[in-house]
Each structure stands twice: as structure tokens, then as C-alpha cells.
């Protein structure tokens, strides 16, 4: 019963931790990439400024000596590109020049595709008349840096995966510890409900028996006393039913293994329908049973009987005079579908989700007259689930249709 809650808690815990971890990894990566890129830009700027300062000019144009050799230039990974004011390349040194057009107004350019490069544009100023004569574009391959980022990504992803596995294992332990007190108190509550319902049976039987005995000799009592005794007998009857229902639910919750046997469902339903014929007739209802062949089922016959009793009882209770109730069973694949359809008052769409809740009843004004407690469908659902099946309800234009799917 607490399995789902435990799993939901664990998933929520893992979800929160994964989000925090992702934010942390993204922040670390962003800071690292930013710092490393800035370092390269600073290095290229220093190199570019040194070279640009020693550039020659003639008539306002850059002059580069053919045998120029720059000491700090790593020709395999870097390149220098002199560009005049019109954007024409005058001279290149080194192997790594950008294939992008010289965007001289941008001081930093990045070429993301292979070969991945970064370049810094340094303005070259004629020191005599202080006019701009061109640019020096200093480029460097980003392959080494990208390799470092790739290793960082692998490290972060691997670390995050290991952290998530460890947190998951810790989470299983923590959720188990956190749920234990709740599970224990729930167990105690179930035990209390079972014990209380069991203990209430005998005094209730005694009250019922005593009032019935008293009613057998009404001559010696006033007519009002007789009415009182009848009311006592009715209330005792209702309370016995309620305690019986609570006891069944408590036992179902505790998942006590009931004995399973082979059940002839066709026979069981036929018998049940015959049993309810008198009650249906009393309310002027048509109650019919339809089935294809003999359907066999594995389960607890007492519980299966209780399940369909509750559904047929409801159909009779909530169908006004003149209505029709159809009980049908058929084999569909590996399971048996039993439908209990009626032409009664139906259930409002917004109430369908509550229909199987314990003590839930549609607005009391309309269901008051049945005197029920709202446990019938909760019991039906528990029984169906204990048998590995499913119960659903649909309400078309008229009445309701309960479908029970049970594995064979
Ligand atoms: N066939 C039906 N048609 C219309 N409403 C229904 C039908 N079956 C159940 N309901 C609604 O669902 C509610 C819950 O049903 P459930 O059988 O659990 O309780 P109950 O019949 O009120 O009491 P009891 O515990 O005695 O069965 C009912 O009060 C009724 O409002
Ligand atoms: Mg009912």
C-alpha cells in the first residue's frame, strides 16, 4: 500500500537532487569556459599588441617585411594576419587563419566549425599622424581548449551519474526510514479497526436479538414502546452491517491470504440474480442475466459473492421503479468481463472519481433513502484488486455501468 508513496517520494527526491546537480554543473562549466577563453583572448591580445606596435607604415599604408619572424608565435597553432583599412589581407604568418571574412569592427571572432578558431583584431595606428591604417588579426586554434572542455563534460556527467546513483541508494534508505513510523501507525490503526469491529459484533447481536425477542410479545407494551424497539432493531442491523464492512476492509488492507478455489462464475451470478429477483420485483424492476457458456475463475468465492452482491444491491437501490438491470459476463482474451448495468439515476461525471472512496456517497439528499454507509464500492474495489483485476464505472445517457475485469 505504501509502495507507491515511497516510490513517489524517492522520485521527487531524485528529481530535486538532479535539478540542483544540473544547475551546479552548468554553473561550473560556464565559469570554466569563460575563464579559459578569457585567458586565450588575453594571450592573443598581448601578442597582437606587441606585433602591431612594431609594424611599419609608408604613405599611410602598412608595410610588412618579407622576412619578418615573430618570436612568440606558435606557427602550428596560431597565425597573424595583417589587414588594411579596406579589409584586404596584406600578409599572413602562421597556419591558423580564420576562413571567416575579416569583420574588422569586431574585436573577437570565433569560428565554431572545423577547424575551430578564435581571433582577436588589434587596430594598427600610424604613430606619425595618429590615423588608423589597418588591423592585425591574431588567431589561435581552439582544438586543445575544446578537448579540455570535452574532458570536463565527461568528468561532470560521470560525476553526476555516480552522485545520482549514490543519492538514489541513500534515498531508498531515507524514504524507508521516513515511512516506517507512518506504516507502523497505519498497521496499528488497521488492527484497531479490525479488533473494534470484531468486538462490536457480539454486543450488537445481543441488542438485535433482545429487541427481536421483545417485539415477539408486543401485548405487554405500549404501542410507542413497540416502535422504539423496532427502531433499536433497525439501528442494530445497520451497525452490524457497518462493522461487518469495516472488518472486511481491514482484513483486505492487511492482505490476509484468503483461500482460493476454482469458481463457476456463471453459476454464482445466476444464483445471485435469482436471489435478488424478489427485491427487484418489489421495486417493479426487471433484473436479467446474460452469459456466454460456463465461465470459470480462480479466487475466493465468498469475496467474489460479496463483490457482485454489492454491485447488484446498488443497481437495485439506485434505479427507480420501472427500470432495468442487466448483469452480463463474457470471456475476453485471458480475462472475464462482468458488467452490471442499470437504467437508474446515474452518477454525475465530476463524482465518478470519488465513487470508490471509503464512506463516500453522492449528495446525501438523493441517497439518504437507501440507508447505506458508502463502503460497498470501496469493498468491491479492494476485492477486485486482491484478485488482480480492475473495476471501472461509466455513465452514458441513462444509468450507470460497472465493469469488473478479472483474470481467469
Ligand atoms: N448503480 C448506481 N447508480 C447510481 N449511483 C450509484 C450506483 N452505485 C453507487 N452509486 C453511488 O455511489 C455511492 C457509493 O456507493 P457504495 O455502494 O459505496 O455506498 P452505499 O450504497 O451508499 O452504501 P453501502 O455501504 O451500504 O453500499 C452511493 O451512495 C451512490 O451515491
Ligand atoms: Mg452500496
From TrEMBL:
Name of one Pfam family that matches: HisKA
Entry-linked Gene3D superfamilies: 1.10.287.130, Histidine kinase-like ATPase, C-terminal domain
Subcellular location: Membrane
Any one cellular-component term (Gene Ontology): membrane
InterPro entries with a match to the protein in the record: HATPase_C_sf (IPR036890), HATPase_dom (IPR003594), His_kinase_dom (IPR005467), HisK_dim/P_dom (IPR003661), HisK_dim/P_sf (IPR036097), Sensor_HK_Regulatory (IPR050736), Sig_transdc_His_kin-like_C (IPR004358)
Catalytic activity, reaction form: ATP + protein L-histidine = ADP + protein N-phospho-L-histidine
Stretches assigned to the Histidine kinase domain: 195-408
Membrane-spanning residues: 7-28, 154-174
Keywords noted in UniProt: ATP-binding, Kinase, Membrane, Nucleotide-binding, Phosphoprotein, Transferase, Transmembrane, Transmembrane helix, Two-component regulatory system
EC number, as in UniProt: 2.7.13.3
SUPFAM superfamilies assigned: ATPase domain of HSP90 chaperone/DNA topoisomerase II/histidine kinase, Homodimeric domain of signal transducing histidine kinase
Enzyme kind, highest EC tier: transferase
CDD domains per the UniProt record, alphabetical: HATPase, HisKA
Coiled-coil region(s): none
A GO term, aspect molecular function: phosphorelay sensor kinase activity
Chief location of this protein within or outside the cell: membrane
Protein name: histidine kinase
Native source organism of the sequence: Pseudanabaena frigida
Amino acid at each position: 500500500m505504501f509502495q507507491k508513496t515511497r516510490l513517489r517520494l524517492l522520485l521527487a527526491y531524485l528529481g530535486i537532487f538532479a535539478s540542483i546537480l544540473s544547475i551546479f554543473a552548468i554553473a561550473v562549466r560556464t565559469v570554466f569556459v569563460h575563464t579559459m577563453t578569457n585567458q586565450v583572448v588575453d594571450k592573443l591580445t598581448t601578442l597582437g599588441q606587441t606585433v602591431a606596435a612594431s609594424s611599419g607604415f609608408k604613405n599611410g599604408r602598412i608595410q610588412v617585411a618579407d622576412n619578418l619572424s615573430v618570436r612568440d608565435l606558435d606557427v602550428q597553432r596560431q597565425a597573424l594576419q595583417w589587414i588594411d583599412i579596406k579589409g584586404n589581407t596584406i600578409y599572413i604568418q602562421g597556419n591558423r587563419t580564420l576562413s571567416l571574412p575579416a569583420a574588422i569592427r569586431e574585436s573577437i571572432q570565433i569560428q565554431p566549425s572545423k577547424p575551430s578558431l578564435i581571433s582577436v583584431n588589434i587596430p594598427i595606428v600610424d604613430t606619425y599622424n595618429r590615423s588608423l591604417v589597418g588591423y592585425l588579426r591574431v588567431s589561435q586554434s581552439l582544438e586543445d581548449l575544446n578537448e579540455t572542455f570535452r574532458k570536463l563534460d565527461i568528468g561532470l556527467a560521470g560525476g553526476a551519474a555516480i552522485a545520482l546513483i549514490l543519492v538514489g541508494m541513500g534515498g531508498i534508505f531515507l524514504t524507508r526510514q521516513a515511512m516506517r513510523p507512518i506504516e507502523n501507525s497505519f498497521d496499528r490503526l488497521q488492527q484497531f479497526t479490525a479488533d473494534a469491529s470484531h468486538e462490536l459484533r457480539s454486543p450488537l447481536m445481543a441488542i438485535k436479538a433482545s429487541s427481536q425477542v421483545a417485539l415477539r410479545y408486543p401485548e405487554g407494551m405500549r404501542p410507542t414502546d413497540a416502535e422504539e424497539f423496532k427502531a433499536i432493531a433497525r439501528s442494530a442491523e445497520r451497525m452490524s452491517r457497518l462493522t461487518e464492512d469495516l472488518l472486511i476492509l481491514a482484513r483486505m488492507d492487511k492482505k490476509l491470504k484468503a483461500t482460493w478455489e476454482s469458481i463457476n462464475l456463471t453459476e454464482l451470478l445466476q444464483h445471485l440474480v435469482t436471489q435478488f429477483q424478489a427485491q427487484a420485483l418489489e421495486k417493479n424492476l426487471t433484473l436479467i442475466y446474460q452469459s456466454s457458456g460456463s465461465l470459470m475463475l480462480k479466487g475466493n468465492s465468498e469475496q467474489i459473492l460479496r463483490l457482485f452482491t454489492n454491485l447488484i444491491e446498488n443497481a437495485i437501490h439506485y434505479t427507480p421503479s420501472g427500470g432495468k438491470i442487466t448483469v452480463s459476463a463474457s470471456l475476453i482474451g485471458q480475462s472475464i468481463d462482468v458488467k452490471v448495468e442499470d437504467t437508474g439515476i446515474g452518477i454525475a461525471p465530476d463524482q465518478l472519481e470519488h465513487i470508490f472512496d471509503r464512506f463516500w456517497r453522492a449528495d446525501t439528499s438523493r441517497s439518504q433513502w437507501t440507508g447505506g454507509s458508502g463502503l460497498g464500492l470501496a469493498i468491491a474495489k479492494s476485492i477486485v484488486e486482491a484478485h488482480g483485476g480492475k473495476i471501472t464505472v461509466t455513465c452514458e445517457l441513462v444509468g450507470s455501468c460497472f465493469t469488473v475485469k478479472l483474470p481467469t
